[in-house]
């Protein structure tokens, strides 16, 4: 019995000890889109398990500030506009940036320089600007410009359909090959609670659609934000 016990103990001593538990991760490339590669951490002891964290961009994809020498029909100086990224679809190569609306001028009296009264930059909805409080956004537009990231070229779009009224300080979000616009403020005051959708699935024939959404909306507002969540919900916040 003693010999058997000794042999068993000797066999256990020769067996290599199991690796200690570890939370170490390894990064594997999960795909690339438009020159960007996403790295996703996985458990090196059990790769079949779900990722330990959300995907993150590889170091090669980090943004580097640089000045683009853009050409074409540029939108010109403005404020209160939106610039929305639209991913490529079909034969289109590279992402595009869709610029909509904004104010091309500022009006105001003494407070335009920040002297007394309400804080500068507060848009008003009354008549022509005077020496009253705040700065009034003027020259509101509803034009659409598109910037081709690949070629560095601006182009003025002339969409068909029912466009939104001229406005600034609105919100916009990309939904596939569409840009959804909500709210804002224009010459007549706050824009309505309706949604306008710019369909750019065909860049040669873009089209505006006015969408009537059932239920209680967020209400008329400006200086808010809108984001697409889970590829299903349009989240409107603030304003």
TrEMBL record:
InterPro entries: Kelch-typ_b-propeller. SUPFAM superfamilies: Kelch motif. Residues 120-133 have a biased composition (Low complexity). This is Uncharacterized protein. It comes from the Eukaryota. Coiled coil: none annotated. Gene3D superfamilies: Kelch-type beta propeller (2.120.10.80). The lineage of its organism: Eukaryota, Viridiplantae, Chlorophyta, Pseudoscourfieldiophyceae, Pseudoscourfieldiales. It comes from Pycnococcus provasolii. Residues 1-56, 111-133 are annotated as: Disordered. Signal peptide: none annotated. Pfam families: Kelch_KLHDC2_KLHL20_DRC7 (PF24681).
């Amino acid at each position: 019995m003693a010999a058997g016990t000794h042999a068993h103990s000797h066999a256990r001593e020769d067996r290599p000890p199991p690796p200690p538990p570890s939370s170490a991760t390894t990064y594997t490339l999960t795909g690339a889109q438009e020159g960007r590669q996403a790295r996703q951490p996985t458990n090196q002891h059990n790769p079949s398990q779900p990722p330990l964290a959300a995907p993150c961009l590889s170091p090669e994809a980090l943004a580097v500030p640089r000045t683009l020498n853009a050409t074409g029909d540029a939108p010109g100086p403005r404020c209160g506009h939106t610039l929305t990224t639209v991913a490529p679809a079909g034969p289109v190569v590279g992402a595009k940036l869709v610029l909509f609306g904004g104010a091309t001028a500022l009006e105001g009296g003494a407070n335009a320089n920040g002297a007394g009264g309400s804080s500068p930059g507060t848009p008003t909805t009354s008549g022509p600007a005077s020496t009253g409080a705040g700065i009034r956004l003027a020259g509101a537009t509803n034009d659409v410009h598109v910037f081709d990231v690949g070629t560095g070229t601006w182009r003025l779009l002339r969409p068909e359909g029912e466009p939104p009224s001229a406005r600034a300080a609105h919100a916009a979000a990309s939904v596939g090959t569409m840009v959804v616009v909500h709210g804002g403020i224009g010459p007549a005051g706050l824009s309505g609670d309706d949604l306008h959708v710019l369909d750019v699935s065909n860049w040669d024939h873009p089209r505006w659609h006015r969408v009537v959404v059932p239920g209680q909306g967020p209400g008329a507002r400006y200086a808010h934000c809108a984001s697409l969540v889970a590829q299903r919900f349009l989240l409107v916040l603030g304003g």
